[in-house]
Amino acid sequence: MSSMSACPACIAGPKADDVEAYSHKPNVHLSVPTIHCAACIGTVERALMAMPEVSYARVNLSLKRVAIEAHGGTVDALVKTLDAAGFEAHPLDATVLGDVENKEERSLLIRLSVAGFAMMNVMLLSVAIWSGADGATRELFHLISAAISLPAVLYAGQPFFRSAQRALVRGTMNMDVPISLAILLASAMSLYETLNGGRHAYFDAALSLTFFLLVGRYLDQRTRSAARSAAKELSALEVRTAQKLVNGKVVETSVDDLVIGDLMLIPTGVRVPVDGQLMTARARTDRSFLTGETASVELAQGAQVQAGEINLGAPFQITATAVGEDTTLRRLSTLVETAETSRNRYTNLADRAARIYAPAVHLLAFVAFAVWYWISGDLRLSINIAVAVLIITCPCALGLAVPAVATAAIGKLYAKGFLVKNGTALERIAEVDRVVFDKTGTLTLPKTSVSLNKLSAHETPYVLALAQASSHPLSRAIARALRDVTPVELQNVQEIPGAGVQG
User: Fold this and answer.
1) Of 84, 101, 271, 424, whose CB is crowded by the most CB atoms within 10 A?
2) Catalytic one of 17, 134, 433, 438
3) 306 and 359 share one domain
4) Rounded to whole angstroms, how far apart are CA atoms 161 and 363?
5) 251, 391: one domain
């Protein structure tokens, strides 16, 4: 399940098919670090698919990348297309992507700090006005509040202003539109009232809205940073170098340079770099990443070995049968990434609410303005009341509650061993009434426990010394059980595949 996508500022984009054909082979990968919701996904994919040379485009929100199958054209043309659609893009570079994500989080934190500092100072000035300050004193405090709040609002509110602008340019409506209107109109009317000697100003309200909404946006960003991607985890299992045997000698070779038929040596404790056929008489590996079973697998000569398996026994040799994109690990990573980007009929609570909430808020504010203008004929009073309606109905509670609750829930689930990687998972789980487990590995912990009650105090130091010399799951379990025992020193320790350890 992918990282949380609780974006209260954006409505869900159009749905695509739940299952994409796996026949596509993307040849271009671009990092799109500024996407953060389903609407962004739809815009990026539509912009790319509109290009005649692009036959496939799929966004992975958790990795913030887009995979493209393009025939002809250049990467620069793809980047320019996305730039015209309002999204920064560059050829995928994991280091740069991480830096951009860190910059975005740091930028939100700085804006949050500015809004909080300005809000506290303006609130202090507002207390004096609420307490009865009048005349020149009130006007002076209003002017000081304006000098503090206007630059702070224009700087701290940029994430909402940019999102609202993108939505309006596309002819759509999202929650950032009423948020931005409330902040800007409150500031503008407050400045007008201040310059014309008015009694009421809303500088404190504009800053409070900005501060609390930035809290929600920052929590959402932190949730994304904390969540991990299964596709990225599988990619981390890939080995970059291999020990290739050439005329009986070991040569350190890049995995990208391996070809089918190459003979390789797999040392103890090392991951298998490519798919291959076992040439040694016996071998023992850990293939839990593929099957979910923590028990080691005993292999005989001629057996198939997949990339990503770990050699738990003596060194063995394999002959490469699949390399590059054709290895089991790479194909599995592709399937998982495709599953992460698949669409479903669910959208986030905030996304669903935005479809009704945003137009309803604007309609309510307009009705309030029209009714009061019809009653009083005072344009200034009517605008003030419309602004007050926008401030009161501004969705700051929803913008703060959704990411805050999601962050807390995901943190607790992660502490219990559950990894949430989709923004709608927490909502969908409320509808679950049956759970089907596909294999025993799903129900077992990745640790083995042993009972050593029959060992005497004289035997335990020797057993621990032997167990520490092996990476077998049972040996590791014995070592954990005897962690308070001081082992003896052994010599000539040997691990015999399938038979145990001696020394």
Assistant:
1) 424
2) 438
3) no
4) 20
5) no
Q: How confident is the model at residue 111 (pLDDT cuts 50, 70, 90)?
A: very high
**In total, how many domains does the chain have?**
3
State whether 218 and 357 are in the same domain. Answer: yes
Examine residue 31 and state whether it is found in any structural domain, yes or no: no
State the SS3 of 474-495. HHHHHHHHCCCCCCCCCCCCEE
Residue 438 appears among annotated catalytic residues:
yes
Residues 256 and 310 in one domain: yes
pLDDT (0 to 100) of residue 132: 72
Q: For residue 304, list its beta bridge partners.
A: 277
Residue with token string 């309002």: 86
Percent of the chain whose pLDDT exceeds 90: 8
Of the candidates 200, 118, 138, 213, the residue with the CA atom closest to the CA atom of residue 387: 200
The answer on 217 and 365 residing in a single domain is: yes
Same domain, 133 and 209: yes
Mean pLDDT along residues 476-501: 81
Q: Has residue 487 been placed in a domain?
A: yes
Average pLDDT on 411-428 reads 68
CB 44 within 8 A of CB 66: yes
What range does the domain containing 368 cover?
106-229+345-409
Q: What is the pLDDT of residue 162?
A: 87
Residue in this structure with the two tokens 């409320």, named with its chain if needed: 430
By DSSP bridging, strand 54-60 and strand 241-246 are unpaired
Per DSSP, helices labelled H in 31-135 are 38-49, 75-84, 94-130
Q: What is the reported pLDDT for 350?
A: 59
| Residue whose token pair is 């040392």 | 267
Distance (Å, whole) CA 386 – CA 382:
6
CB proximity list for 244: less than 8 A, separation 6 or greater:
250, 251, 252, 253, 258, 262, 263, 264, 265
DSSP 271: B
Residues 202 and 306 in one domain: no
Is residue 79 included in any domain, yes or no?
A: no
30, 96, 153, 472 from 64: Cα distances, Å: 9, 12, 29, 38
Residues 243 and 177 in one domain: no
